[in-house]
Amino acid sequence: MKTAISSQKNKYVFVGFAVDVSGSMQKSIRNEKSKNENRFDGFRESLKQLSQEAKKEIEINKEKGNGASIDVFAYAFGLEDMDYCDLLTLIKFGQEMAFNQTNKANTSQRTYSDPYGELEDIAKKNGIQDIPGFKTWIMKALPRSKEAQRLAERLHKYPQIAKHIAKFLPKNFIEAGISGSGYWAEKTIPGLGNYIANAVDPTGNRNNLNKAESLAREFANASDDEVRKIIIREVGNKELSERGNTTMPLEKVVDLLNSREDELEDIESLIYGNTPMQSALKAVKSRFEKELRDLPKDTIPILFIISDGIPTDGNPMWVAQALKTTGVHIISCFVTDQDIIHPRKLFNTAEAGWNDGARLMFNMASPIEKNSDFTRFLVEIGWTVPSNAQLFVQVNHTDVLDEFIRVVLSPIKESL
Q1: For a Cys staple, 22 with which of 78, 88, 337, 370, CB 3.0–4.6 Å?
Q2: What is the β-pairing status of strands 67-77 and 84-86?
């Protein structure tokens, strides 16, 4: 689908972002402030500036009697234990965890005369039936009463972790065959433990119990900041799948990103994995199909992809082609640390020196015509746009990323 210069009174744009959060996005990106900023943080700052400018452009349109709206969604791909997730939901989750942690840290602490008895009550509430076996286990796992006290306090504050730890515990320790000599032999007799434990625990309950013990001890002894990160690491994936997706006006994204500067540090344990771009783009395709059904027919759909690596789950080119066939404009941004001779130039053919990642991103990008909104915008801010160019750029500096990401505003742009 080719886009001419917008002339209608009401302008609707629907933008999806597919954002690589794989391990390579932890590398730094150049910036004018010479600060240590990784590639994902650079995108986040560019998105914040884009949101601020969208707010201004919508106001300008309104003053001229034009209606304009840009709704957005975003997927992050390359997480540790998930192929992709809704990025805006992920950021919301990190911020809510920080807010809850602050509020709960300010509540008065409770002191239990029998912290082990308190942990027994918590275990009962989470389905543990063999309480004598549980008490034997928890007293050996946390022999110091101060540890048991801290764990009881925190499990009351964060019941989702209590439920999570209980998931690794057998409902009945005796029936599971791990409350007796086999389990504790492994703990106390080097070289003999594995043999005995395997004999009495052929179903692998011992490994789950080790996990529960390690997590209970970690949660009891963590600092307040570490507690939040443990919760996000352990229950984040489940929380994200239950919370669903977030679509919001672009001009509101700045409020989300401004609310707290360090929420990405909290969710770091969930990101920086592989690069499952194909899976993410399949989800993006389904999201466009679903949401465009409820939007005006003249809505302009745009997908902005930002990545710096090769997909680890197969070639996503067929998904990109399917998106373009249905009218989605794909804007593709390949992040690199190599020097770029012409950083503000689009291309109509792949260059000989490009690597496989850059070639793939170039091929996925949509072509644009000379009189399109995209071309008009880029030319006006000083970019070179040859005939039959693709909406693709390689970036190694945040200034170029800041400029290129603004192309999604071009269909509603009333001024520079």
Answers
A1: 78
A2: antiparallel
Maximum distance among all Cα pairs of the chain, rounded to whole angstroms: 81
Q: Which pLDDT tens digit goes with each residue over 311-337?
A: 989 999 999 999 999 999 999 999 988
Could you give the 3-state DSSP secondary structure of residue 112?
coil
Do residues 346 and 320 lie in contact, with contact meaning Cβ atoms separated by under 8 Å?
A: no
| Total Cβ atoms within 10 A of residue 5 | 12
Angle at 359 between CA 406 and CA 333, to 5 degrees: 15
The conformation of residue 4, written as its DSSP 8-state character, comes to P
Q: What does the alpha-carbon distance between residue 15 and residue 75 come to, in Å, rounded to a whole number?
A: 11
Question: 71 by DSSP, 3-state: which?
Answer: strand
Please return the burial class of 178, using the count of CB atoms within 10 Å of its CB with bins 0-12, 13-18 and 19+.
buried
Give the Cα separation of 392 and 372 in Å (integer).
15
Query: Distance between CA 314 and CA 275 in Å, rounded?
Result: 10
Rounded Cα distance between 176 and 156, Å, is 27
Do residues 270 and 71 lie in contact, with contact meaning Cβ atoms separated by under 8 Å?
no
The tokens describing 178, both together, are 């791990």
Q: What is the pLDDT of residues 142-167, one digit of tens each?
A: 999 999 999 999 999 888 889 989 98
Distance CA 22, CA 173 (A): 40
Contact 171, 212 (CB under 8 A): no
Q: Which of 368, 390, 304, 367 is nearest to 14 (CA)?
A: 304
The structure tokens listed for 13 are 């744009």
Under 8 Å between Cβ of 219 and 152 = no
Instruction: Give CA 252 to chain center in angstroms.
Output: 18
Question: What is the spatial distance between Cα 320 and Cα 10, in angstroms, rounded to a whole number?
Answer: 28
Report which of 36, 95, 406 is spatially closest to residue 257, judged by C-alpha positions.
95
Determine which helix (DSSP H) or strand (DSSP E) holds 116, and give its type and residue range: helix 115-125
pTM of the model as a whole: 0.76
Lowest mean per-residue pLDDT among 30-39, 42-51, 148-157, 385-394: 30-39
Q: Are 275 and 20 in contact (CB under 8 A)?
A: yes
User: Tokens 């669903």 map to which residue?
Assistant: 244
Q: How far is it, in rounded angstroms, from Cα 114 to Cα 119? A: 9
Mean pLDDT of the chain: 82
**Angle, CA of 36, 39 and 44, to the nearest 5°:** 100
Give the tokens for residue 43: 């995108």
